[in-house]
UniProtKB/TrEMBL annotation:
Keywords: Heme, Iron, Metal-binding, Monooxygenase, Oxidoreductase. Its cofactor is heme. The keyword rRNA-binding does not apply. Belongs to the cytochrome P450 family. The gene is cypC. This is Fatty-acid peroxygenase. It comes from the Bacteria. It holds the Pfam family p450.
């Protein structure tokens, strides 16, 4: 047995501190650590947290990290779903991931989704104009816009007018994954309801009692065959459909942060209005994804005994890659607390921008929805910058102790 510089027997469990401190937990530990590596326990499991470009390459080496059994049930039963692509390794992962990539990396498909979103957004703004004296909560409105648009795009019929239930359920699944209270129960119920409904839909499509547009996500998931040649059972098929629908709705978090940024730094509004090329809107979208806290870290298990900077990390250790902390590390970002959409002009900074994971989406677990996220976020940043709005008095603080977090008010605005 190799000797450990830091024997795990003395590592204390950090789960309660993580739940209490949220986004501040890992960066606080990182600051206090002499070598930029954090050793702790989560849910009793020995845990090592890493940060920086070298750590990204280390973590995304498939020989180093496996995902099977890495995510705890409370995260799977709310956020990602049991049996999700997030939990697969090797060939099983490669084959399932190819399905996502074919749907989510297709330029024409992304453009079609952008058009659905803009249509639904303009419908919503039209409704706001009917009652101009009323203010609206941007987060709730955007979640509904995105839910309706992603239903149009995936071929999944919205179960009720306005997409309100689906939007609420997707938001609940994300909102409740990292807490032990009532938000967590709401997330479990939301997932159960949506998995059951989408599972039944997949069965109806296969029995040809419902049509799925050719090439739509509903069609592709219903017909997908895994590495063993078998169709997905209805429940895992529903899980994967939700792994397209839910995160699209979750872009509402970034849109709300973008509105916060436009309010706090209004000097970007004018240039965004004149941004014919769309380059500034894209830079703004990237800077929102860097600056604001959303995914705190990603995790996997050491696939075998590993060597990290001269230290043995035993097989089975939970490895965390610190996403949020990396985005505010002054060694990687000049003035990390300055909101600067121009930092991506050369494209070089994109290398260290990992709000949706690192490495290569086709080879590893990096998010396949990143192009969609940037495209939709940039489109809605442009729409927001073009609107004349007033922002009534409200609580716009973004508590780092809450995970996931948001401006407390959800960002209330009124058309001016
Ligand atoms: C994976 C974040 C949007 C689909 C991930 C991962 C993160 C992430 C952190 C895990 C990476 C890893 O484990 O190494 C986000 C954030 C989003 C977003 C913050 C903003 C809303 C999307 C969108 C889609 C999507 C729009 C689909 C339309 C997925 C899927 C995976 C994934 C299917 C699993 C990939 C795999 O395990 O191979 N995302 N994502 N995400 N994301 Fe996203
Ligand atoms: C989505 O709905 O998929 C988009 C929002 C994702 C937030 C990502 C949170 C990552 C949580 C990782 C937990 C790792 C625990 C070991």
């Amino acid at each position: 047995m190799p000797t450990l510089k830091h024997p795990p027997s003395v590592w204390t469990d950090g789960t309660l501190s993580l739940l209490a401190q949220g986004y501040a937990w890992l960066p606080d530990h990182m600051r206090a650590s002499a070598d930029g590596t954090v050793r702790t326990r989560l849910l009793g499991r020995r845990t090592v947290a890493l940060r920086g470009p070298e750590a990204v390459a280390f973590f995304y080496d498939e020989q180093h990290v496996r995902r099977r059994a890495a995510l705890p049930d409370p995260v799977l039963d709310t956020l990602f779903g049991q049996g999700a692509v997030h939990t697969l390794d090797g060939l099983a992962h490669r084959v399932r991931k190819a399905m996502f990539l074919s749907l989510l990396k297709d330029e024409k498909g992304i453009e079609a989704l952008r058009e659905h979103v803009l249509l639904r957004w303009r419908e919503a703004v039209g409704r706001w104009r009917e009652e101009p004296e009323e203010s609206v909560v941007l987060f709730d409105e955007t979640a509904r816009v995105l839910a309706l648009a992603v239903c149009d795009w995936t071929g999944v019929p919205a179960t009720e007018p306005g997409g309100a239930q689906l939007a609420r359920d997707c938001v609940a699944m994300v909102d409740g994954f990292a807490t032990a209270g009532p938000r967590h129960l709401r997330a479990r119920h939301a997932r159960k309801r949506q998995e059951e409904a989408l599972g039944r839909l997949v069965v109806r499509v296969r029995e040809q009692r419902e049509t799925a547009p050719d090439g739509s996500a509903l069609d592709v998931v219903a017909r997908h065959r895994d590495a063993d040649g078998a169709l997905l059972d209805p429940r895992p098929a529903a899980v994967e459909l939700l792994n397209i629908i839910r995160p699209t709705v979750a872009i509402a978090w970034f849109v709300t942060f973008a509105a916060h940024a436009l309010h706090r730094w209004p000097e970007h509004r004018g240039p965004l209005r004149g941004d014919v090329s769309g380059h500034l809107a894209t830079g703004f979208a990237h800077e929102v994804r860097r600056f604001y806290p959303f995914a705190p870290f990603v995790g996997g298990l050491a696939a075998r005994d590993l060597q990290w900077r001269g230290e043995t990390v035993p097989e089975g250790t939970l490895l965390l890659l610190d996403l949020y902390g990396q985005h505010h590390d002054p060694r990687l970002w000049a003035h990390p607390y300055r909101f600067d959409p121009h930092r991506y002009a050369t494209g070089e900074s994109l290398r260290d921008l990992i709000p949706q994971g690192g490495g290569d989406a086709a080879e590893g677990h990096r998010c396949p929805g990143e192009d969609i996220t940037v495209t939709l976020l940039a489109a809605l940043v442009t729409e927001l910058a073009g609107l004349d709005v007033s922002v009534p008095d409200q609580d716009l603080t973004i508590p780092l102790s809450r995970m996931p977090t948001l401006p407390r008010s959800g960002f209330r605005l009124r058309l001016a």
